[in-house]
What we know:
The complex is a heterodimer of chains A (487) and B (238). With 487 residues, chain A is an alpha+beta fold. Chain A is built from 17 helices and 16 strands. Chain A has helices spanning 3-16, 18-56, 83-91, 124-127, 130-133, 153-158, 181-189, 196-201, 211-235, 267-274, 282-291, 319-328, 336-379, 381-389, 394-437, 450-476, 480-485; strands spanning 61-66, 95-100, 103-110, 113-122, 135-138, 148-152, 171-179, 190-191, 194-195, 238-250, 254-255, 258-259, 263-266, 278-279, 309-313, 331-335. Chain A is elongated and about 130 Å long. Chain B contains seven helices and eleven strands. Chain B is globular and about 50 Å long.
Amino acid sequence: MTLRDLIVISTGNLWRMKLRTFLTTSGVLIAIAAFVSMISFGAGNQERINNEFNKLGLFSTMQVYPRNRQVISDTASIAPLDENALKHFAEVPGVNIVYPYDAFSVTARLGDSVLSAKAQALPIAAVQTKLFSNLSAGVAFDSNSSRETIISDDFLKKAGMVVPDSAIGKKLVLSVHVSVIDSGLAHILVDRGQTILDRIKKIRLDSLVNKEYRMKVLHGEVNETIRRFLNGFVNAQSVVTDTLRVCGVRGPDRVGRMRIESIIIPASTAARFNSSGFSGNPADIFSALSSGTFFNRSDDNGGKTYSQVTIDFDPKVPYKGIRDSIEALGFRTFSFAAEFEQIQRAFLYLDLALGVIGLIALFTASLGIVNTMVMSITERRREIGVLKSLGADEVDIRWLFLVESGVIGVLGTVAGIFFGWTITRIVSAVAQAYMKNQGIPPMDLFALPVWLVLIALGVGVGVSVVAGFYPAARAARVDPVEALRND
Amino acid sequence: MNPQAFLSTVELCRYYRRGPQTVRALDDVTMSVTKGEFLSVVGSSGSGKTTLLNLLAGLDTPTSGTVELAGTALATMSRRQLSAYRAHKVGMIFQSFNLISHYTALQNVETALYFNGTSPHERHRLAAEVLDRLGLADRTTHRPSDLSGGEQQRVAVARAIVKKPEILFADEPTGNLDFENAQQLADLLASLNRDGLTIVLVTHNLELAQQYTHRTIRMQYGHVIHTIATGSAETTQP
């Protein structure tokens, strides 16, 4: 008996029992539809994240941070994330570009709107990576000294503009209030017309032998010195202003854990702002204090350290090798590829959980197949006897019933995949309409990749055939003498 | 044992357990069939005729004794070899026709060729040819329920002979037929025998047996009580 014979006979038998076949197949159909729609939800989200990561080139992006003091021994020193470290990173095989996170607070005027924002200095090579080159309007600046800027969609909206193209060519006036350490030191010497000598003169030198008086003077003078420094540092600010042309508009300010500031300016152009001193933003001052660069700022970046550095590497090079090399230099790393692996693992667990629910439904459907096939044996005992008298072997009879349950599985699975896909399309359409209504960018929550179709086919047909094992074995064991005697 | 025997049995026994009792359906039967012979087995109900036929066809397994086909004991054959024996060498027809009710006449005949390696195209051609030969050319698409008893039995004969078997076992083939159809069927079997087909016919009808077959074995309570050479008054002990 050929497979074609088996399929022809099986489909003929199933066609004869249309209602029973329909009901049994429906069980498989519903189970597979549930399986496909649930797994396609996980697959859809996974695919969306994968596409997003690929689009932004995040698989080949790594961030480097100084080590936390808490996780290293108190005696060990923290490797500084400075220009020297950047040079070492650039020497690691596979690394294409290394650039620091270098941002400062600005007051920006675009048209009639004046906004407080943060500007980020980026070298031209970084701007040309996937991470920054996906612009919704315009083009990137073409040199490190270009007097152009790229702004974000969010910034544009805050400035009252909706259409990104309308911002291209507009002037963006940036002002930075710069606090200089020198003015703080100068105010220690002279503040509000009072010199440090005036303060010293007020001290009763003969009373310094008195401990209580001595401590009181000490506390008083320390407090006064700090007050004078801060007064000079914070209040005696200078303002650096520059006008740049908006050349491009880019997407959201945050990509995963990576913050991209609202205003991106070429590295050399930005130097004019951030080499002059500290901006008026207290966060910059605390940042400089915590990174130990407060007293080390200078024009040539000598001794300047960064809180964060981004590395763009060759996608063909495994991220683990680069990560290990960087960590061996004494730094912490964050890799999007590693994060994606974790996301994938989470999706695997989600898919497994959803798959188990689908399999439970399929198991229930398989009981329907067993029932149908056992009933079929009872009804077709004489037919089995006749077939054996005509020369059918037990193997032929077993195959006949296995193929029959397999045909139920194929029909139910194919219809189930189609039905499940239809359900996902309907749910996706409703979800997208809701997202649009809520102002969320519409996204497809589901995906039906080829692997899911193949797995559904394998599982659906496989479970159906397995369900046919017992009835097939039972049919094969039918005694032809008994079966033919029935009549 | 007859050295010219095509199919023979030696001290063949088939016992069944029915609760605490043992039913001796066939007890110590030794007989033989020669090539081209038309042998009939007669006896009352429960005499063991059908049991003998099932054992000869390899459908049943003897409790003891042997069935030999051209010198080879069926007991030495594997399950697959026995199936192949039925698929290639044996044709069977039954009292109740045993046609598959949802198949057409043509499909029923084709079914016999599923298990002997005949190609689908050849199956169709052979089945149509044999139905035509038996006068059922205009009934090929009819289902058994649309056919008369005589036609159904002719379809069953067509199914049995389409594979060109070496031996045909007929179990009470005229039992459900009227006199005229029974005569026609007997004529058909005799014609097939004249063409060289070896036939073992189990029947109640002693007259039919004596009229058409070369030799008749009479059975009672599982034993062969005598063998009659048809066409002569000679009666021999088995």
